[in-house]
Write a structure and sequence with these properties.
83 residues, 3 helices, 37% helix, 16% strand
């Protein structure tokens, strides 16, 4: 287990072999730690329809970045999170 505040930002892949990114995000948000409620989590997925973005937000993510990932999208998220 990592100490609270260890992570500043998570880029969450949606399609993973054991658990999808939606479930992983729900589990992170459900942890009994103060930091996980404000920790920015952004979906990264080739599925970029409005429904996919909604599913990301419903799972507790803060945004959605479509694949193929462009550096400008990463920079935009980092500016939003860190100023």
């Amino acid at each position: 287990s990592t100490p609270e505040g260890y992570y500043d930002l998570i880029f969450m892949d949606i399609q993973m072999p054991v658990m999808d990114g939606y479930e992983a995000t729900r589990r992170i948000r459900a942890m009994e730690r103060a930091d996980v409620q404000r920790l920015p989590i952004y979906a990264v997925s080739a599925n970029a329809l409005a429904e996919d973005v909604k599913n990301s937000m419903d799972a507790g993510m803060d945004g959605h970045i479509p694949k193929p990932v462009e550096m400008a999208a990463i920079e935009k998220v980092m500016r939003r999170c860190f100023g």
